[in-house]
Design brief:
The protein folds into two domains: 159 residues, Rossmann fold; 196 residues, Glycogen Phosphorylase B (Rossmann fold, 3-Layer(aba) Sandwich). The protein has 14 helices and 15 strands. 33% of the residues lie in helices and 17% in strands.
Length: 381
């Protein structure tokens, strides 16, 4: 049904996959928010490659917000992260043979079943030969690829576009902006996002407070963003109550957040979806990375990566992004912190000095024009 996997990895299809004149295409990406945002590069490649196509996207419920207003998507379909058997069967029935092409961005069982049900033709990443599920997943897809190891997620996704015979468009598409506003910001401002989704990617309270102080000394107003989770808000109460300078705290939609970030003088955040969004908007972005390798999932700058991120370094710069790490011998370990669980500490982050982060901030401010935002107003928290 499909060509040899080794050949698939080395050669793009000689011409565009033959589909009906106005094909219906489903792109499946059942991952968290940051991964869904990175998948917009593939969605754009498919949209521009198949003129007149209808492009729908299947994502986890809750991850759809990062796609708000995306001009490349006709319809967003959602499923629960942990659906019942009844919900799964109902979704499969609703999708059954509804699409001319199903594109799965991951080799898992559930995306594979959705792809098999939905698409008359199918393309997906599959496990490497010898891994569990490799044989049957290769068999059910017309084009089966093994994701190139040690490469960025966006680069991997562009391999799917090339296998379809399309020109790759490695461009991350943020949600449609919303510049509505009650709180005035009367001078250039920095955006801080202190809380990642997982504890093991978190920096120290003292580090955030020192950076806030340093940004204020550089003449910037401070805006801190946060989510609705009560535990997150309690943690940020502790962090920002210890800051020696005023911090405006905001809880925004993804569209509002995109608008805020695009106008910021600089953004500082950990390895989390908000940091990926900051990079995609063009904001000068300082990303604090610990156990995770930026080579695989670092922020994708506007214009793409002309050179891959190194696995580790003190301060790396690509485009509008600066990745800051504490390059200890074990970095990056690709583990769940030093204790191996989601609530673990990570010594590489706990010992990351604020002065190093502020050095990256100074590099970003020196390269980026200061935005003129005398009339910019932001939603109240």
């Amino acid at each position: 049904m499909c060509a040899d996997l080794a050949e698939e990895r080395e050669h793009a299809l000689p011409r565009k996959l033959a589909l009906p004149e106005r094909p219906r295409i489903l792109i499946i990406t059942l991952r968290r928010l940051g991964d869904v945002l990175l998948a917009t590069a593939l969605i754009r490649s498919v949209r521009r490659g198949f003129a007149g196509a209808r492009v729908d996207v299947l994502v986890f419920r809750g991850s759809d917000a990062i796609l708000e207003g995306n001009p490349d998507i006709d319809r967003i379909i959602t499923v629960s992260e942990r659906p019942s058997i009844g919900e799964t069967l109902a979704r499969i029935c609703a999708l059954f043979r509804h699409y001319d092409l199903a594109v799965s961005t991951q080799p898992g069982d559930r995306p594979t079943f959705y792809s098999l049900a939905a698409g008359r033709r199918r393309i997906s990443f599959v496990p490497a030969p010898g891994e569990t599920g490799a044989a049957w997943k290769r068999h059910v897809h017309h084009i089966a690829l093994v994701a190139e190891p040690d490469t960025h997620r966006v680069t991997q996704l562009m391999a799917l576009a090339r296998a379809l015979g399309l020109d790759s468009q490695p461009e991350i598409v943020p949600p449609l902006e919303n510049a509505s506003c009650p709180v005035p910001v009367r001078k250039p401002y920095a955006v801080l996002h202190a809380n990642p989704f997982y504890r093991y990617k978190r920096w120290t309270d003292a580090g955030w407070q020192a950076v806030a102080r340093g940004l204020a000394e550089r003449g910037l107003a401070l805006v801190a963003t946060e989510g609705p989770d009560p535990d997150e808000r309690a943690y940020l109460d502790r962090v920002w109550s210890g800051a020696a300078t005023p911090v405006t705290r905001l809880r925004l939609s993804w569209a509002e957040l995109a608008s805020l970030l695009r106008r910021a003088a600089v953004y500082v955040g950990p390895d989390t979806s908000t940091t990926h969004l900051a990079a995609a908007t063009g904001c000068p972005t300082i990303a604090l990375y610990g156990p995770t390798s930026p080579r695989l999932i670092g922020p994708w700058p506007v214009g793409g990566l002309t050179k891959p991120w190194d696995h580790a370094g003190s301060i790396q710069h690509r485009g509008n992004v600066w990745v800051v790490q504490n390059p200890q011998p074990c970095l990056p370990c690709e583990k769940l912190g030093c204790e191996g669980h989601l609530e673990s500490f990570s010594r590489c982050l706990d010992e990351l000095p604020a002065d190093q982060v502020l050095t990256a901030v100074d590099c970003a401010l020196a390269r980026a024009p200061q935005p003129d935002v005398p009339e910019m107003r932001l939603p109240a928290s």
